[in-house]
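Friendly challenge for the regulars: who can give me the structure tokens for this chain first? No prize, just bragging rights.
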Amino acid sequence: MLVDDFDYELPLELIAQTPLKNRSDARLLVLHKETGRIEHRCFKDILQYLKAGDALVLNNTKVLPARLIGRKLHSGGLVEILLLNKRSLHVWEAIVRPGKRLQAGAEVIFGTGELKARILEVLPDGGRLVEFFYTGIFEDVLDRLGEMPLPPYIKTKLVDKNRYQTVYAKEQGSAAAPTAGLHFTPQLLQKIAAKGVSLVYLTLHVGLGTFRPVKVEHIKDHKMHSEYYSVSEKAAQVLNQCKSNGGRIVAVGTTSCRTLETIADINGKIKAASGWTDLFIYPGYRFKVVDLLLTNFHLPKSTLLMLVSAFAGREKVLAAYREAVQRKYRFFSFGDAMLIL
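First reply, four minutes later:
Bragging rights claimed.
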């Protein structure tokens, strides 16, 4: 199977540049995967597709304002450091721009000097190991000085940082938002819970590898980036009980889906676990635990589109995308949503 099999035409004007005023006013394309039937609804209508006894699985990761703009200490040249993975208390793996200015030993100052950085090492993939120097709590300093690491296809400056966070974001560590969850409001979640649907939270910290293009010709040659996940004992118990009682597991986003499929055994039994997953889901994959998938619209030729195609069938998904384009749905992170059942 070729990467080109997952291409589609998308007019640039359909790439959402800003979030809607009200989160749950997004549109919802509902795809029935057995028949290919499509419905066009409002996101709030998701309530009608959920049943008492179901479990709605939400990724509670919180996006770090991980984009830091600073000045090289001696030359004053502007540089950007984008945090990826925390290696130790003060050391992070990061992407830097421009790379030629930030070789090992280079020092950078941010703000009025309350945060400083030193490049420790140039990594094989071109990234850097960066040590930070500051007073107080790093996350507080980052909140003051950092910007949200918006995807490269979003060109408009984000006015409110919280709009690139889910309303239930809790565990800091993501370089990107789990965007399917951006549509939920506290009020809508309350209505869902009142219907008898269990709200189950897990954590998967989204890496920037999400946005990296697939550069191979054949899908099987692609190597997925690893992302950290954590699923509690309580969450595992609720999900297993849901399944044993005949309920459905509804994964909110590809991140929740990949986490659940990583930890489930061949019989769909879930155990509490934490670790790193590089699970690559593409057509031919047999899902063990996820019954319904809520997701946004994804980039052409992306691993996320391949996952959705594995869940619903490539032809049906691409047909749904063509109809979404025709009906001018909003695409990608700040765009509309798709429910597959």
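The mean pLDDT is 95. Residues 17 and 155 are 7 Å apart (CA to CA). Your move, everyone else.
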